[in-house]
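Please, structure for the following, as tokens.
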Amino acid sequence: MTKQDILEKQASFSYIAIGCNLGDKLTNIEQAKNLLDNYNISVQDVSSYYETPSWPNRNFPNFFNIVVKIKTNLSLVDLFFAIKKIEKSFGRKKTQRNYPRKCDIDIIDFKGLYIRSAYMGQKIETPHPRMHKRNFVLFPLYELNKTWIHPKTNIKINNLISVLNNRDFSDIRIV
């Protein structure tokens, strides 16, 4: 009998964030989450729903966000294009950055790897380049994985949370 390599025994999980600030927010997020299965993306765990003001324009509707722990055999590029197809199924089009939308999905962490690449004119980077500054990503990710370490900086998630400003703590609530 051959022993399996330790790395073969470890599951390679990834994390995505799903957000919405238009329409029936909870339903939109649930539908987006359910569509993952159509692309061979298996949901392993889901955070609570978190509500935050829109950024940078607080006059836009508040966002609801979750983080989803997933398992997939897709490559990073294929995962990226799968989530883009899901966003488009909600009518997402190119708009100004940070504008309201029914569905926004970001790859937060792909199998614990730091990757920067470009494919067909799309820049793809994991972990998400601004995730460490976003309370609506850090809090739900912490809920799912209290020992998560940023693949690029090697900073523990509790340390990333500890440097958030006071507003980041006061502006977030579990729905």
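Helices lie at 6-9, 25-35, 76-89, 135-144, 157-162, 166-170. The chain has a mean pLDDT of 90.
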